[in-house]
Amino acid sequence: MWKVIIRRILLMIPQLFILSILVFFFAKLMPGDPFSGLIGPHTDPHEVEALRRAAGLYDPWWEQYLRWLGNAIHGNLGMSYNLKEPVMTVIGHRAINTFWMSLLSVILTYLFAIPMSIVAARNEGKWQDQLWLTYNSITFGIPPYVFYLLIIFIFGYSLNWFPTGGTVSPDAMGIIPVFFSKIYHMILPAFSLAVFGTVGIFTYFRSGILDEQTQDYVRTARAKGVKEKVIFRRHILRNASLPIASNFGFVITGLLGGAIFAETIFGYPGLGQLFITSISGRDYSMITALILLNGFLGLLGALLSDIIMAMVDPRIRIQ
Amino acid sequence: MTEKKHKNSLSLVHSIKEELKKDKLAMISTIFLVAVFLIVYIYSMFLKQSNYVDVNIMDQYLAPLTTGHLLGTDNGGRDIIMMLMISARNSFNIAFAVTLITLVVGNILGVITGYFGGRFDLIFMRFTDFVMILPSMMIIIVFVTIIPRFNSWSLIGIISIFSWIGTTRLIRARTMTEVNRDYVQASKTSGTSDFKIMFREIWPNLSTLVIAEATLVFAGNIGLETGLSFLGFGLPAGTPSLGTMINEATNPETMTDKPWTWVPATVVILIVVLAIIFIGNALRRVADQRQATR
């Protein structure tokens, strides 16, 4: 077990290295540098020039790269040009918002997708199956932002059932009202994300159940006279969950990924919205940091997924 | 050889026709989609650029059913129906171009890596794994903002950087199952060249799958392009897209008080994409049947 994990972590090192080089050159392509964030109406351009020289922005690229990498590892990714704050501080604040909203949406997604796949797989070829297959092919194909817009138009602006922006209402005081106000602000984006996010789980879980139903061990269990309910719950469902587990690492790290469209449309101040406002404000140090963060989360997600798979599926450990 | 090929292509058309006859929804979708494409492309052929670029403030935000403007006008005083046509044409063009690049690159790379396998395939797969992990949406948006002299062709290029991977992996997986079949082994023993086996023997067997994949890729690209344009990082100004029309909805006041500026474009996207999905589902069933009966 530990051998698998250590080997997998070692495999991540070259990937991280490539990612850092990519993001570094990406940052170099963008105009501006960490000192652009310090320039205000009262700064002397010569002073900034001196700072740039002192920071080694005119050094050969590999020296700059190594220094940048060192800083990035220490969590120093420069100053935000627009917010005049360290990038990591801003990201930290926004990450909390994104985390809670994503958590709610992930929970809702599983609540929708799992019963859906079980119903579809148990009634293979019947109308229930057709219904959920069609539903998922539609949500997969329709651009989600169109749906988000209609949702906020109907439930946010026309019916006024839900707030159309922010994370908490200004007149909520005390822990419990603030908590409920936060949940209330999250419901619309999280629900929309969940309604449109079932297709991945549904496809894997449904075909997983269908595959497992025809396995020999299921036939053996039936022949032994095990009750159909028990076969389904104990044997089929457990094995069919493996493909879902294989994606779970990405789900965990995805909690901090930020949903660009949903957060922009629902006015939810998370990392996705931060990215769009940073792009519009040409806040390049922030953009670089967000891309680095998301790339890193992706690699970490792959790592976690592999470790989870090794934990739940003994066959992988043996290989 | 030629006779066999002819029969094969005939039965492909035949089985698609049969499936469409059974699936009324897909049949209606096909007719509808063809009609939409014809109307959009023929109508926009008769439009001059000044028609949809010039601004007429006097006619700004006219409500629907005003004289001469069945669906009203937008913030530049331009007729919504005309804007829908030209925007739909631009959005379809981008989606067509990206789909074409995706399919050509994806099919060639997929068949080659699936056929040869081995070390190159392994490295290539690691590479695609890595690219898939990258935050593609963010990188596309950054490219759009930092590329100098940005135009429609740059947008097509940028979107294509990430779009080919899914198709490549699908075609590779299917090619790998084909390689072990008897007809490929027989061709190899009789000394047919690798190139001929890959593209004259294996690839035609994947053609139904490719068509089904093409419809889904096309629908996805419409979503991606209009989404980018909606956020303001898609087609450049002067080239209206369905997304730029929907962008009117980002202003809460316009969204609630002047829904005619953005709702028609959303409806067009919804209906077109739905039609494509229904056709794609029917085609996928044909692909699965042909895979099973062979």
Secondary structure topology:
The complex is a heterodimer of chains A (319) and B (294).
Chain A: H1 2-29, H2 45-54, H3 61-73, H4 87-122, H5 127-141, H6 144-158, H7 175-195, H8 199-213, H9 216-224, H10 228-240, H11 242-245, H12 248-254, H13 260-265, H14 271-280, H15 284-312, H16 314-318
Helix pairs in contact in A: 1-15, 4-5, 4-7, 4-8, 6-7, 8-10, 9-10, 12-15, 14-15
Chain B: H1 2-22, H2 24-45, H3 49-53, H4 80-116, H5 118-133, H6 136-146, H7 152-179, H8 182-189, H9 194-205, H10 207-231, H11 242-246, H12 252-257, H13 263-293
Transmembrane segments (chain A): 9-29, 99-119, 137-157, 183-203, 248-268, 289-309
Subunit structure (chain A): The complex is composed of two ATP-binding proteins (OppD and OppF), two transmembrane proteins (OppB and OppC) and a solute-binding protein (OppA).
Function (chain A): Part of the ABC transporter complex OppABCDF involved in the uptake of oligopeptides. Probably responsible for the translocation of the substrate across the membrane. Essential for uptake of peptides larger than three amino acids and for growth in milk.
Characterize the structure shown.
The complex is a heterodimer of chains A (319) and B (294). Helix content of chain A is 74%, strand content 0%. With 319 residues, chain A is mostly helical. In chain A, helix 4 packs antiparallel against helix 5, helix 12 runs antiparallel to helix 15 and helix 14 runs antiparallel to helix 15. By secondary structure, chain B is mostly helical. Chain B has one domain: MetI-like (MetI-like fold). Helix content of chain B is 77%, strand content 0%. In chain B, helix 1 packs across helix 13. The chains are: A mainly alpha (319), B mainly alpha (294). At the A-B interface, helix 1, helix 5, helix 6, helix 13 and helix 14 of A face helix 5, helix 6, helix 10, helix 12 and helix 13 of B. Chain A: It is found in: Cell membrane. Chain A: The complex is composed of two ATP-binding proteins (OppD and OppF), two transmembrane proteins (OppB and OppC) and a solute-binding protein (OppA).
